[in-house]
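Researcher: Let's do a round of design. I'm pasting the structure tokens now; please hold your answer until I've finished.
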């Protein structure tokens, strides 16, 4: 089995996810990258060990991915965040099982922990990473910036607000570092510069190691979970699409490597849905025309998020064109059969098949005859590929069993995740004030460790 290196790095995949979660509202545009830039310069000033710089960069770019809804994300933009540990620990839970991101997950878990005159050095018997305190200050600097006003005129106000909370909220060494670099106009102008991607890439120390297919699959699965776990309505969808697409590709005599690529595409195909508000995604009634148009934009976002990485071009074509139709009636590009390759056609079939056969909280999946009837009708109308529908029909029970098994495993993962999140939220309801002791207690509740 070929497992060649793909020319995509951990930083590439991180930037895709970071950009995606910042799409949900214009207020959040570039927030993660601004925090990464500030954290990088604070780290340089305090002479953070070089080997820790890259984990700090990744953690900064992903620090708010635990804000699974727009409301969660907007709350993090308050200077004194109410119950900040909820989204921090949610992000930790999403990332901690991927070996390459375990240290990153721990940094993010504590990125809102206040210094509290030194109490913030540890939580229980765990040492809090110094990088967590760097991101804490960097994040608070970023949220104090008024995007509607000229940046240099805001420096004194931001400095006063930070100094007022020095010993309570922030590590004194990091505050000293900020006080040294705050006089550089370039520091502030870079934060609000439109050229952040270029600067972020230059912050990476050493060569950015390329991911092989195994690591791409792991990272793509994490991204799929960030997309799916926002809503119980779609919590299992990407895992089902990935499994079905891979199974169909195998029956089309694709190579093992090609099948793994389309599995990756299945995990990534709905990444653009991170830009769609939850109230629309979870609406049980028929969508209004405006709401439907908002949903249709998700494939456009998916395409351009993935298109930023040349090495993912093939995977992108499979992933992002899953709502295109052979007769040209799909969206967002209205490609037709002349321009849709076999991978895009497989993904379209896998997406429809998974969507209609999977159970969701508000309805059960279609039975076999009804599902096949609908898909054959779509093939007869030249929306889906006839040959692929015939292949699906001939192998229906086996492919459906593969979908079901993949989604049962995803359900176990989602229920475990949900149980931990509900523990956090129930504690959140009981606590009136956030402090070091409440953070410490929460970390050791249930299975959070």
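Researcher: That's everything. Go ahead.
Model: Designed sequence:
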């Amino acid at each position: 089995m070929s497992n060649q290196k793909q020319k995509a790095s951990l930083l590439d995949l991180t930037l895709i996810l970071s950009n995606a979660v910042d799409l949900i509202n214009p207020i959040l545009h570039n927030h993660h990258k601004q925090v990464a830039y500030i954290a990088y310069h604070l780290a340089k000033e305090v002479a953070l060990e070089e080997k820790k710089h890259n984990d700090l960069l990744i953690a900064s770019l992903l620090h708010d991915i635990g804000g699974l809804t727009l409301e969660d994300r907007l709350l993090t933009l308050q200077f004194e965040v109410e119950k900040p540990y909820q989204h921090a620990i949610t992000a930790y839970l999403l990332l901690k099982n991927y070996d390459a991101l375990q240290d990153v997950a721990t940094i993010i878990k504590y990125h809102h922990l206040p210094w509290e005159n030194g109490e913030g050095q540890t939580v229980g018997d765990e040492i809090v990473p110094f990088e967590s305190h760097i991101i804490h200050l960097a994040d608070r600097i970023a949220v104090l910036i008024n995007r509607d006003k000229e940046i240099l005129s805001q420096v004194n106000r931001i400095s006063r607000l930070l100094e007022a909370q020095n010993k309570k909220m922030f590590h004194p060494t990091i505050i000293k570092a900020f006080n040294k670099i705050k006089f550089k106009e370039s520091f502030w102008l870079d934060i609000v510069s439109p050229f952040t991607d270029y600067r972020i890439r230059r912050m990476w120390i050493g060569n950015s190691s390329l991911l092989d297919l195994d690591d791409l699959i792991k990272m793509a699965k994490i991204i799929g979970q960030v997309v799916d776990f926002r809503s119980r309505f779609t919590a299992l969808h990407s895992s089902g699409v990935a499994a079905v697409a891979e199974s169909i590709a195998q029956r089309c005599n694709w190579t093992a490597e090609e099948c793994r690529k389309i599995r990756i595409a299945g995990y990534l195909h709905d990444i653009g849905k991170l830009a769609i508000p939850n109230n629309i995604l979870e609406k049980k009634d028929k969508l209004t025309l405006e709401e439907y148009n908002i949903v249709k934009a998700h494939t456009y976002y998916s395409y351009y998020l993935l298109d930023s990485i040349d090495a993912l071009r093939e995977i992108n074509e499979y992933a992002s064109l899953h709502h295109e139709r052979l007769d040209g009636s799909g969206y967002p590009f209205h490609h037709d059969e002349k321009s849709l390759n076999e991978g895009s056609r497989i993904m379209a079939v896998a997406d429809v098949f998974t969507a209609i056969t999977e159970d969701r909280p508000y309805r059960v999946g279609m039975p076999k005859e009804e599902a096949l009837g609908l898909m054959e009708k779509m093939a007869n109308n030249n929306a889906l590929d006839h040959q692929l529908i015939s292949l699906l029909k001939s192998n229906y029970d086996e492919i459906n069993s593969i979908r079901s098994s993949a989604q049962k495993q995803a359900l176990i993962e989602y229920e475990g995740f949900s149980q931990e999140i509900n523990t956090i939220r129930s504690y959140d309801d009981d606590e009136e004030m956030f402090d070091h002791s409440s953070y410490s207690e929460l970390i050791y509740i249930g299975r959070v460790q």
